[in-house]
Automatic annotation (TrEMBL):
<dbReference type="GO" id="GO:0047200">
    <property type="term" value="F:tetrahydrodipicolinate N-acetyltransferase activity"/>
</dbReference>
<dbReference type="InterPro" id="IPR001451">
    <property type="entry name" value="Hexapep"/>
</dbReference>
<dbReference type="Pfam" id="PF00132">
    <property type="entry name" value="Hexapep"/>
</dbReference>
<protein>
    <submittedName>
        <fullName>2,3,4,5-tetrahydropyridine-2,6-dicarboxylate N-acetyltransferase</fullName>
        <ecNumber>2.3.1.89</ecNumber>
    </submittedName>
</protein>
<dbReference type="InterPro" id="IPR050179">
    <property type="entry name" value="Trans_hexapeptide_repeat"/>
</dbReference>
<dbReference type="InterPro" id="IPR011004">
    <property type="entry name" value="Trimer_LpxA-like_sf"/>
</dbReference>
<dbReference type="Pfam" id="PF14602">
    <property type="entry name" value="Hexapep_2"/>
</dbReference>
<keyword id="KW-0012">Acyltransferase</keyword>
<keyword id="KW-0808">Transferase</keyword>
């Protein structure tokens, strides 16, 4: 498949764009960013310098993905999401001089395979979003999110579990062991384990 870059997009010649990816109008992809195969970068989205993105990711309109964020395969970033990169943001130093690149150390958001970040959510770096987790629209994530967790609110807290299909899991009745949950779409069975869940394979 051919790579598609809209004429109004600003894509650095030093960025790597995977085969079959689409970068739409007014999007900006900075130097040394690595975009995997078959990704979609929506209108007005910003991909920072050195950001890495796996295959089959979707970054929706006007999302801001600041370096050094890393996105694994199949990550969904909703409209107007912000991934931050500074512990203690300031425009100036204590002496009033303007901050330069050498005056601070960027920290990133790490998003694992298949995770989804809902519209207008903010992920405050440094933080990790686990595989197949879902961050609800408008949430503010200030701490790590376990695999398969569904988090919402300000600050975000876990309100349930989700499977690979993205729908909330349903509690399985009965049983004396660890709580079990089933995906209503795939019928996959999960079992709680420590602070996350795992698929039951037997």
């Amino acid at each position: 498949m051919a790579t598609r870059i809209a004429p109004s997009a600003d894509v650095s010649a030093e960025a790597q764009i995977g085969e079959g990816s689409s970068i739409w109008h007014l999007a900006q992809v900075r130097e040394h960013a690595v975009i995997g195969e078959s990704c979609v970068i929506g209108r007005g989205a910003y991909i920072g310098e050195g950001v890495t993105m796996g295959r089959n990711c979707k970054v929706q309109n006007y999302a801001l993905v600041y370096e050094p964020a890393t996105l694994a395969d199949g990550v969904f970033i909703g409209p107007a999401v912000t991934l931050t990169n500074d512990h203690f943001p300031r425009a100036i130093n204590p002496d009033g001089t303007i901050k330069s690149a050498s005056d601070w150390e960027p920290v990133g958001v790490d998003i694992a395979e298949g995770a989804s970040i809902g519209a207008r959510a903010v992920c405050v770096a440094p933080v990790r979003i686990g595989a197949w987790a879902t961050v609800a629209a408008g949430a503010v994530v200030t701490r790590d999110v376990p695999d398969h967790a569904l988090v919402a609110g300000v600050p975000a807290r876990r309100i349930g579990w989700v499977g690979r299909a993205g729908e909330p899991l349903v509690a399985e009745p009965g049983g004396d062991g660890a709580p079990r949950w089933r995906c209503p779409v795939t019928q996959t069975l999960y079992e709680e384990s420590d602070t996350t869940i795992r698929e039951v394979t037997h």
